[in-house]
Amino acid sequence: MPTHRRPPASQPSDALPVPVPASDAPGLPPGLLDDLRSLIETARREAAAAVNTGMTLMYWRVGRRARRDVLGDQRASYGERIVSTLSRQLTLEYGRSFSEKNLRHMMRFADAFPDEQIVSTLSRQLPWSHFLELIYLKDPLARDFYAQLAAMDRWPVRVLRERMGSMLYERTAVAKQPQAVIERELQAVREGGAPSTGLLFKDPYLLDFLGLHDRHLEKDIEDAILRELETFLLELGAGFSFVARQRRIQLDNDDFYIDLLFYNRRLRRLVAIELKLGDFRPEYKGQMELYLRWLARYDQEPGDAPPLGIILCTGKKADQIELLELDKSGIHVAEYLTVLPPREVFAARVQQALANARARLEANAPANPATDDINPEQAAAAPSTPRRRTARKPNPR
């Protein structure tokens, strides 16, 4: 039996030659190969994006047209036969993309996103796989929220599933606002504006990735956050970057320390975070207001918005927080969970908190409807006029 041997290195086979790096390619002008590669790769990406946009719009139009005929007849059995017949014929002519299951996805797509202009815009930013996750969300505001943030932050479909699974929308501050406020803030993002604090701030924050058990100190939480800083930044939301831990403040010969200090480039604000064990206490407001005023005076850069504060507690006192009007001071109070309960318990808890917040909002709605849609973010005025500090700034402890 004849044997087949691999040709020696000195005798190359018919395989394609290994590309020579640009820096090693002889006889080429500097930068030429890199420029051509960039042109080719850019053109390929643009072509792939154009194909994705065209296919997504086609799916939407097919779904809209099919749905019109199916819903146009009151007999459910007739509608089922239309979908089945359409699917068999389209699959025969154009392949499995038009199976009965996919055809129903397309019809659902047209139902969930009735505005072709919105679909056209989103299809340039999101692939079909993202729409398959979004179209079966029952709440249209939640669907719009996830669509806009996925497009803005370029979430892979895996991240989109994780955000939906963690009930991100229900945990955001904006979800507890009136419908008109939610729609307006999502419209601002759709038009290219920066997200509001309501879209970024959450309650509760999920810190189960820190690996902490029932008994721990505030320092243990800080240490764990720094170990898992990348994951913590993802939980905080888009645009956050770490600045300092235990930021030292000196006032009247007294030292104060901000637990964690971040900067959000989209909000253009410093964000101070205080970690607390136990329930919220009223004195936390004065402490955070002191920190924010100091940051506004000494650390706020020209062009930045006033600093914001987040107080993370293991429990909240809703009546106290409401009376203290923390939003007007640019302070957000939220719970954090280091251990997640079972999925059903967690979902019920988040939904109940959302229902309580909306009921409280309706009960306290002002008589003048013109003031109903005031954004709490707009109510937070600058604590003082920012100026450059001439003395040396204190360093973190």
From TrEMBL:
Biased composition regions of type Basic residues, renumbered to the chain: 386-397
Gene Ontology molecular-function annotations: nucleic acid binding
YhcG N-terminal domain location: 36-171
YhcG PDDEXK nuclease domain: residues covered: 201-344
Pfam families for this protein: DUF1016_N, YhcG_C
Region spans: Disordered: 1-27, 364-397
Signal peptide: none
PANTHER family referenced in this protein's UniProt entry, alphabetically: NUCLEASE YHCG-RELATED, UNCHARACTERIZED PROTEIN YHCG-RELATED
Protein name, entry field: DUF1016 domain-containing protein
Species for this entry: Pseudaquabacterium pictum
